[in-house]
Amino acid sequence: MKFFTTRAGTWTGFGAAALVLFGLAPLLLSGFRLGLLAQFLCYAIVAVGIGLAWGRGGMLTLGQGVFFGMGAYLMAMHLKMADAEFRGGPGAVPDFMELAGIRELPAYWAPFASPAFTIAAILVLPTAFAVLLGLAVFKRRVKGAYFAILSQALAGAFAILLIGQQSLGGFNGLSRFRYFFGYNLDDPVNQQMLYFIVAGVLLAVVAVSLQLRRSRYGELLVAVRDAEERVRFLGYDAANVKVVAYAVAALFASVAGAVFVPIVGIISPASIGIVPSIMFILGVAIGGRASLVGPVVGALAVAWAQTALSEQFPSAWTYAQGLMFILVIALLPGGIASTAAVLKRIPTKRATVEATT
Question: What tens digit of pLDDT does each residue of 175-226 get?
C-alpha cells in the first residue's frame, strides 16, 4: 500500500482508474448500465469533497445537497432556456412555465441563455455562498454537532424553498431536457459523451483533492481537525482553513449537480434535500472518510446497492442497506478503505495471543 503514496504509485493508480472508466466500462456495460454508472460517478464527485471537508477537516457536512442542487438547478435553467429557444426563438418561455400560466420569462432566467454565464455561475455562486456561510459559522467557532445540525437544516430549508417556486418547477422540479450545449440528449453517442465527461471530472477532482491533501495546507487542515486551539495559538486563523475546505467541497458538489442533470434528465427538491445529503455522508462513511479513494468507493457501493437491492427487493431494500451500513461500521470502523490494514493486523493479534499462552 505504501507504493501508492509515491509518485509512481499515484500515476499507476490514476492510469488504472482511467483504464477502467474510459476503456473497460464502456466496453462491458450496456447503454443503460453505463448511464447508471455516470449517475453514480456524480455522487462520487460529491463524496470526494466530503472526504476532504469531513475526513481531513473534521466538518460533518450534512447539507451538501444544497450545493449539489444549486449546480443542478443552474444547469437545468440553461437547458430549459436552450430548449425554449429552439422551440420558439429567443425570449421564449420554457414549456413548464406555459403550463403553470407564466407568460413572461422571469428576469433572473434571462442570463442563463448564455452557456458561458451558466458555467461561470455553476463555478462561482455555490462557492461564494459556501465562503460566506463558512465565514459566518466558523468565525463564531461553531463546530461539531452544532455545525452538522445547521448544515442539515439548511438542506431542508433549501428544498422547501424550491417547492414554493413555481418559476423553478415547484415540487416537480425541472425535467424533459432535449439539448446539452447543442447536442441532442436522445442520441446514444451523446449520452456516452456525458459519461466520459463525468468520468474525467471525477479524476480531476480526485487529483485536486490529492494535491490539497499532500500540500502544506492539507497538513494544516488535519492540525485544525485534531488540535484547533493549538493551531490558533501558533498564529493561524483556523476559521479560514476550514472555509477553504468547505468551499472546495461545495464547488465539487456544484459541478457534480451540473453534470447530473443532463445525465438523469430531471432535478427536483426531492433530489437535494435532507435524505440525499445523508446518503452522500453514508457513502463516505462506508468507504472511509480519511482516505482519498474511500469516499469514491463508498459512494459507488451505496448507489449500486440502492439500485440493485431496489430492483430485487422493492419493499425491503432500505433494511438491507441499513444492515450493510451497520456491518461495515462494526467490522471496519475506518470504512472499506481500511480493509487491508485490518487484515494485516489479524496475524499480529494471533501471534500476540499465542505468545501470551
Answer: 989 999 889 999 999 999 999 999 999 999 999 999 999 999 999 999 999 9
**Residue 180: strand pairing partners:** 183
Report yes or no: 50 and 292 within 8 Å, Cβ to Cβ.
no
Q: What is the C-alpha to C-alpha distance for residues 8 and 22, in angstroms, rounded to an integer?
A: 21
Helix, strand, coil abundance in the chain, percent, nearest 5: 80, 0, 20
- CB distance 286 to 278 below 8 Å: no
DSSP state of 175: E
Which tens digits make up the pLDDT trace of 138-168? 999 988 889 999 999 999 999 999 998 888 9
The model's confidence at residue 352, banded by pLDDT at 50, 70 and 90, is low
Domain boundaries, the chain: 14-270
Nearest by Cα to 94 from 29, 166, 152, 147: 166
**Cα 181 from chain centre:** 23
R_g of the chain, CA atoms, integer Å? 22
- Can you tell me the distance from the alpha carbon of 91 to that of 193, in angstroms, rounded to the nearest whole number? 29
